[in-house]
Amino acid sequence: MSRVLSGTRPTGKLHLGHLLGALENYKKLQGQDAFFMIADLHALTTEYEHKTTIAQNVMEIVIDYLASGLEPDKCTMFVQSEVLEHANLALLFSMITPISWLERNPTYKDQINELRGKDLHTHGFLGYPVLQAADIAIYKAEKVPVGEDQLPHLELTREIIRRFHHLYEKDVFPEPVAVLTQVPKVLGLDGRKMSKSYKNGIYLADSAEEVTKKIKTQMVTDPARKRREDKGDPEKCPVFSYHKLFNKERVDGVADECRNALRGCVDCKMEMCGKLNQFLDPIRERRQSWMKKPKEIREILDQGAAKARSVARQTLTEASQAMGLLP
To answer: Would you kindly state where each structural domain of the chain is located, as residue ranges?
Structure first.
């Protein structure tokens, strides 16, 4: 059975993009030897100034994990900082990782541009792909569920592992492969990719009323349809992309009505919104239930951390021996 590792930064509540792009994959893989972490150390790379929010966000992420269908008896859920071996291996990997490898990371400059209000010129932000590599390698993970934007990081992980094996002439870690989601990019309310940093998300914690209000008042449609009688192009409309996801049986009819101006955008939004809320209702119910069980959640995380540490400790010992730090 292949070991799986993936994680989520606790920088806020999870949205539809996380659910369809990551958590649905997690659910399919949880019957395997799967480790799913809340990557609070990674949150510090961009949120180091906000010390009061990370711990709270950790609990929100765990609740979203559980509400989405992850089951503690089928996978290992834990908080990254509670397994110190992550940081230990990251330090060892940092000793052998050329700075040029980190500077060529395509998301490094992208995130600096996207988050211009933050001071990201730090050692931790430049080096976070090394910590990612350690996260994966410390469990000898073979499969990593990721989105396409994370593929360069996974390739860097493989390069670091290859360099480690070349330098120390001992194979300690497998080279992980990506498990890509089959769901297309989930658009946000403004038509861009759904992102916490863009504040354009529909969150798993949103009530049906909140979702309806967001869809009705904030979600953009085909810009060519300025009037009810204007014919539209459904492929240019974010609302139609949601019909494809949550109203599949009506996709052809919705597209025809849009192209021929047979109904207005508000009606189209409300039909889609009803289907979306039906999809989210079971998640909301499970979320409300788990919010009443903080002690059980803490037990799940404690048990997960204990299992994670037992695996990580052995791997760190092997890596330290290969490097000559241990006999």
So the answer is: 3-186+293-323, 208-287
